Batch of 3 targets.
Target 1
Amino acid sequence: MLLTRNTVYIVLNQFLSIIIPIFTLKYVVSIVDNQQFGVIVLYTMIFSYLGMLIEFGFGLSSTRELILVKEDVKRSSEIYSSVVILKILFFLLANLILFFVFFFEDVTFNKYVLLSGVLVLFNRIFDNFWVFQVFNKVGIHTFISFISKILYPIVIFACLKSKDNFWLVLLVPGILNFLSNIIYVYIIRNKIGLFYFFPGFQKITAQLKLASSFFWSIFFSNIYTSLSFIFLGFFASPNEISLIGSADRLIQPIKAGFSAVSLSLFPDFNTMFKKNYKCGFKNVFKYAKIFAFGILIFSTVLSMNAEKIYHFFYGYKLDNGIALFRILVYLPGIVFLGNIFGVQGLLSIKKELYYLKVIILAAILSVLFNFLLVPKYLTMAYTFILISIESLVMILFFIKILKLSKYYEES
């Protein structure tokens, strides 16, 4: 029952993070021009990429560690404090990179966009959702997040009246999340009971090592998922970037929903595999079959109704992005199935090395395809690379899980 409730909360939290801003898109697109919309999309991606550096895989490694010691307040606080300290250090590094990017991107420079980036990255330090998940406080986190998400369109509709203020689309979420984080920190300290202290360099280093394998997997995964967009930024015009951005904005809620389900399942798959490998493999294939069928139907329905969806959210301003959306709408499902075999399966039985090898292979192929295809074919190359690389990753994870399940059945 707890799994079902937490899954619903997590899906709702992730879904609202994307779906509510989407309802402001039509208004935003009517105010800003295509170039400014392209800047919004580009820097949203950059902030997200740098945020991944701050997270460093702690959401997975710390969840696994905290589950084992959550009854021990001091040990739990030690893990939490170590992660926060490491996040502060990575926040400083991420800001150096951000300032470097802005130094060379003088054409799109805007001090409020820069401020938005700093604030978004700072929020990554204290929004430790994994703590709420382990201590079964997901409902509280979801409620606070919901209030923040509801306020976003209200502020945008009230304040965004001129295209010169396009930076509000980036800054407002940062401010609202900052206010939410103040409440999160209060709850962690006063309701959950964790406290801050300096646990020593040895303990901090231990958390860094535990998270490193997850980080490199996430890092190389982000290379092959984000690199195409970055390449596109060098060769395509802001108008073409806005087409990809318009499709991506509509696909994000689907990704968020699938990602939330995966996030909620990870602790339970860890527990299942620790008790019985055969039971763990059985559930991996069970979930994969159920979701594969549903995903195919869901994605096909969205693809067939792409034109209606686009006109509902954007009007007729970005119609050239409809063809891209019809194809990319299948991407979240492919990613999710790869996640079932990879994260829920391989990482639960500590096959991080094989997982990392597959991700590195995908990153290398992505770099190669981007150099060869993106300069010439632009948005269509972007679409082809994402679909083909994610499909390859899913197939390789499936083959490995299938071999391992047969091995453990025979042994």
Target 2
Amino acid sequence: MFLVTVLRVEKLRIQTADDPGVKGILSLLPMHEALILSTLLFLLCFAVLGCATPTNQPVNRSTIPNSPISNKNESVLYVDSQETRCYNGAATNAIDGDTRTIWHSQMCDGSAPPPPHQITINMGASYTVTAFEYVPRQDGSACGWINQYEFYVSTDGTHWGNPVAAGTFNYGNLSKKCPGPGAGVPGPLQVAFPPTTGQYVRLRALSEVNGNPWITAADIHVLGGPPTAKSARLPSSAFEPGQDGGRWFSTRKK
């Protein structure tokens, strides 16, 4: 600890040596006196005030409650539209952790049902959910970028209530060219909301950024705390056909 203090003091002296406006007490003292003074101050702060030692190390996201929930146990419970005929736009691409693949609603053979489009994900266990993250497609095309959205959390996959979050995604000054290439490459868009307990989440895309009928997503992540309960079983009545050829799934992400 003393060595760390020595290095900090020397760093401070070097940083302030050429700036008369930033010179402090340490820069006016001989080196040995500055070390003694800084060490005493550090020990006093640590012992009396409980000061924490600064660090520039990255935070281990697995130790904080609002970390991304692992998608290894996630599965797509329902999607209202996906393109699998002329393009690999399966809904499971939204939870595979690979931003090179995308969920794409139907677009081939002149079949492009308009939004809203929605995807329902079974997280595999109950969590206290605090945010979700939408990763738009990363291939230089803005086709399908979600504009307005709603996000829901459910304990049983059948009762949803009001959305826990709703709004419009902000893409800043990125080019929204569709078709690509030429569009910008947006980073993950994260939306926080009050902690909500549930096992199932639903992202509902109300509109597309250019007014097109299709929706795309490279990845969808859920953030929250550890599991709060064992998995809940869905009643058989929950498995009903969805609109626009919607499909219910029971297959986990590979």
Target 3
Amino acid sequence: MSAQEFKELVGNTNDEDYKREPTAMDEYREQQKDDGKAWSEIALSEKAVIAAYEKSTLIRMPKGKYEGMVYYIPSGMVRKDENGLRLRLPEDFEVHLKGGSDEKTDLTAQQLMEELAGKRDEDYESIYRRPSEEARKKFETIEANLRSSLPDEMRNKSNWVVVRTRENNDTGRLEKFLIDVHTGKFAESDNPNTWTDFDTACEYAKEHGGVALAYALDGKDGIACIDLDKCIGEGGKRTPLAEEVLSKCGKTYIEHSLSGKGLHIFGKTQGADLRSFSKDGDMEYYQSGQFIAMTGDNIGGKELADFDTPEMKALLERKLERRTEWTNVGKGEAGLTQMDDRELLEKAFSAKNGDTVKRLYNGEDLRHNHSNSDMSLMNYLAFYSGGNVEQMTRIFATSGLYRPEKDASYYEHTAIKAAKDTPHYTPPKAPAQPPKSSGGNSKA
């Protein structure tokens, strides 16, 4: 660059032009006051990165002593240049590795550098813990049930993914993770490239681990599912709603859910513009864009009955109601017409993490993946609304994250999952008031 070119480039700049937003590295240095400490740097394979978030990056360990374990690093410590990724750590940094079954190990920065030294892309590929023989046999039982019970129309389609589960200690729920067998990463309910055929899914589950399979409802084959959660109580007693549905759905494919406390009732429909959830939360109805975890624990028939009969249509319309268009979509707080919606956002914005909620609501893709940011905002809305799906979707539709090209069912399904997986806000209790003095005039 010539002196004249340099002058033209910087001649009209000022101090403001050279300011930058603080990074996670800046935050770490500020917190630790470690500017004078030694730092180490090492090349890092891009295959090692599982997910990159706003302030932290999730990384897997390579093959070797700690393979199968993962750790978080402040995102500012992972840098990319023309040669690839570089990991830079201060000498006193400690890494907390986590593995399956609550396995935990702490490494110093030097120990981590030694484990990563010389590792290439292939050292991060196909790292998994082979399922135990007991887990393999357990899945083989489920596979046999599915093969003997499933309607041929479902089993013969390439709409299958593998299910893994984990107990959530905060909610007491069994969390489900849907796995794409091609990559080992999360499958997407609206992306057929992440699905596979039934036989391939079964083989992957037995070899790499899986507790069940899930079927992707794609909206193209007319297959729908009524999901009744927690409808089976002590001694197998069903709720009145479950009994009503079973009496009207005909001889169709019905199975117990993974928890054993719910029912999945499958059938055929030409489609109805109904919401995916009931107001009282005791029924969900999926027609497309949704995975259903399958167990093969069949209590019905092997065919798919018609959901468009007068009895079933009346039942579904009574419970689910027809969709109404959301108003003021994407208009932000100005689009909120109900006082309780405004109050919910005010409460969320004023909380400790209120800035994050506000930025998500205003449309920032903080998770660097629009769907993940959608779920993040829905989780906050679920927390402050007490899991009110109708209110959650109504507020979300006014946010900057709302995408009009997405079907309404996408937002309903996201809200339903958030409502199930997120603990609900509990208002702080008012301090107990001391009893008023009677002034010595009370009667005995």
